[in-house]
Amino acid sequence: MQAMFISAILPFLLFGLAALRTTGPVAAASSAMRPTRTVSEDDNAGTITLHSGDRLLVKLAPDWDWSLDPFDTEILSQVTESGALPRGAQALLEAKKPGTTRISLTGDPPCARSRPPCNAPSRRFQLTVVVQ
After folding, report:
1. How far apart are CA 50 and CA 33, in angstroms?
2. Are residues 67 and 121 in the same domain?
3. Segments forming the whole domain that contains residue 15
4. CATH number of the domain that 102 lies in?
5. Which residues, other chains included, contact 132 with Cβ-Cβ below 8 Å and sequence gap of 6+?
6. pLDDT of 2-32, one tens digit each?
7. DSSP 63
8. Full-model pTM
9. Which partner from 39, 83, 106, 109 sits 20 to 30 angstroms from 29, CA to CA?
10. What is the DSSP letter of 121?
11. Of 19, 95, 17, whose CA–CA distance to 53 is shortest?
12. Among 86, 63, 84, 66, which residue's Cα sits nearest to residue 127?
Protein backbone atom coordinates (compact mmCIF):
# COMPACT_ATOMS: atom_id res chain seq x y z
CA MET A 1 0.00 0.00 0.00
CA GLN A 2 2.78 2.41 0.96
CA ALA A 3 4.75 1.61 -2.21
CA MET A 4 1.68 2.32 -4.33
CA PHE A 5 1.16 5.69 -2.59
CA ILE A 6 4.82 6.69 -3.10
CA SER A 7 4.83 5.67 -6.76
CA ALA A 8 1.63 7.66 -7.28
CA ILE A 9 2.93 10.92 -5.76
CA LEU A 10 6.59 10.68 -6.87
CA PRO A 11 6.00 12.25 -10.32
CA PHE A 12 4.27 15.24 -8.69
CA LEU A 13 7.13 15.73 -6.24
CA LEU A 14 9.72 15.60 -9.02
CA PHE A 15 7.73 18.05 -11.13
CA GLY A 16 7.45 20.44 -8.18
CA LEU A 17 11.19 20.31 -7.52
CA ALA A 18 11.96 20.95 -11.18
CA ALA A 19 9.70 24.01 -11.16
CA LEU A 20 11.65 25.49 -8.25
CA ARG A 21 14.96 25.49 -10.12
CA THR A 22 16.43 28.95 -10.81
CA THR A 23 18.79 28.01 -13.62
CA GLY A 24 18.31 26.74 -17.15
CA PRO A 25 15.25 27.57 -19.24
CA VAL A 26 13.35 29.23 -16.38
CA ALA A 27 16.20 31.69 -15.72
CA ALA A 28 16.74 32.25 -19.44
CA ALA A 29 13.06 33.09 -19.88
CA SER A 30 13.18 35.63 -17.07
CA SER A 31 16.19 37.42 -18.60
CA ALA A 32 14.35 37.62 -21.92
CA MET A 33 11.44 39.42 -20.21
CA ARG A 34 13.31 42.70 -19.75
CA PRO A 35 11.57 45.75 -21.23
CA THR A 36 12.97 46.56 -24.68
CA ARG A 37 12.62 49.93 -26.39
CA THR A 38 13.03 49.91 -30.18
CA VAL A 39 14.32 53.01 -31.95
CA SER A 40 14.36 53.77 -35.67
CA GLU A 41 15.49 56.60 -37.92
CA ASP A 42 12.41 58.52 -36.76
CA ASP A 43 14.15 58.87 -33.37
CA ASN A 44 17.31 60.45 -34.85
CA ALA A 45 18.63 63.39 -32.79
CA GLY A 46 16.13 62.60 -30.03
CA THR A 47 16.37 61.64 -26.37
CA ILE A 48 14.96 58.54 -24.69
CA THR A 49 14.79 57.48 -21.06
CA LEU A 50 15.48 53.94 -19.87
CA HIS A 51 15.71 52.29 -16.46
CA SER A 52 18.57 50.05 -15.34
CA GLY A 53 18.03 46.61 -16.87
CA ASP A 54 15.97 47.92 -19.81
CA ARG A 55 17.16 47.11 -23.31
CA LEU A 56 17.48 49.33 -26.37
CA LEU A 57 17.09 47.80 -29.83
CA VAL A 58 18.40 49.90 -32.73
CA LYS A 59 16.67 49.12 -36.05
CA LEU A 60 17.67 51.43 -38.89
CA ALA A 61 17.44 51.11 -42.69
CA PRO A 62 18.32 47.42 -43.19
CA ASP A 63 19.87 47.82 -46.64
CA TRP A 64 22.48 50.32 -45.38
CA ASP A 65 25.79 49.22 -43.83
CA TRP A 66 25.65 50.61 -40.24
CA SER A 67 28.51 50.75 -37.75
CA LEU A 68 28.11 51.58 -34.07
CA ASP A 69 30.52 54.20 -32.75
CA PRO A 70 32.09 53.79 -29.28
CA PHE A 71 29.81 54.76 -26.38
CA ASP A 72 29.98 54.97 -22.58
CA THR A 73 30.11 51.33 -21.48
CA GLU A 74 29.66 52.35 -17.85
CA ILE A 75 26.06 53.32 -18.66
CA LEU A 76 25.18 50.97 -21.55
CA SER A 77 26.51 47.56 -22.53
CA GLN A 78 26.16 45.69 -25.77
CA VAL A 79 24.12 42.48 -25.41
CA THR A 80 26.07 39.60 -26.87
CA GLU A 81 23.84 36.63 -26.02
CA SER A 82 23.63 34.10 -28.83
CA GLY A 83 20.73 35.02 -31.09
CA ALA A 84 19.98 38.21 -29.15
CA LEU A 85 20.18 40.54 -32.16
CA PRO A 86 17.04 40.19 -34.28
CA ARG A 87 17.36 40.18 -38.05
CA GLY A 88 17.53 43.70 -39.47
CA ALA A 89 18.73 45.26 -36.21
CA GLN A 90 22.07 47.01 -35.80
CA ALA A 91 22.52 46.91 -32.02
CA LEU A 92 21.00 45.62 -28.80
CA LEU A 93 22.13 47.54 -25.72
CA GLU A 94 21.30 47.17 -22.04
CA ALA A 95 21.06 50.01 -19.51
CA LYS A 96 23.54 49.29 -16.70
CA LYS A 97 23.52 52.26 -14.35
CA PRO A 98 22.08 55.80 -14.12
CA GLY A 99 23.66 58.45 -16.32
CA THR A 100 23.43 60.11 -19.72
CA THR A 101 25.26 59.03 -22.86
CA ARG A 102 24.94 59.34 -26.61
CA ILE A 103 24.96 56.55 -29.14
CA SER A 104 25.92 57.22 -32.76
CA LEU A 105 25.87 55.06 -35.83
CA THR A 106 27.20 55.77 -39.31
CA GLY A 107 25.45 54.20 -42.30
CA ASP A 108 26.92 53.76 -45.75
CA PRO A 109 24.57 53.37 -48.73
CA PRO A 110 24.36 49.98 -50.47
CA CYS A 111 25.98 51.41 -53.61
CA ALA A 112 29.14 52.27 -51.64
CA ARG A 113 30.14 48.59 -52.00
CA SER A 114 29.65 48.53 -55.76
CA ARG A 115 32.51 48.92 -58.24
CA PRO A 116 32.95 51.74 -58.94
CA PRO A 117 31.39 52.99 -55.69
CA CYS A 118 28.72 55.64 -55.82
CA ASN A 119 29.14 59.14 -54.43
CA ALA A 120 26.06 59.00 -52.21
CA PRO A 121 26.74 60.39 -48.74
CA SER A 122 26.74 58.36 -45.54
CA ARG A 123 24.02 58.91 -42.91
CA ARG A 124 24.46 59.63 -39.20
CA PHE A 125 22.13 58.49 -36.47
CA GLN A 126 22.50 59.97 -32.99
CA LEU A 127 20.45 59.38 -29.88
CA THR A 128 20.83 60.65 -26.33
CA VAL A 129 20.08 57.94 -23.77
CA VAL A 130 19.19 58.83 -20.18
CA VAL A 131 19.28 55.91 -17.75
CA GLN A 132 17.45 56.40 -14.44
Report:
1. 15
2. yes
3. 1-33
4. 2.60.40.2020
5. 49, 50, 51, 52, 98
6. 555 445 554 444 444 343 333 334 334 445 5
7. T
8. 0.72
9. 39
10. P
11. 95
12. 66
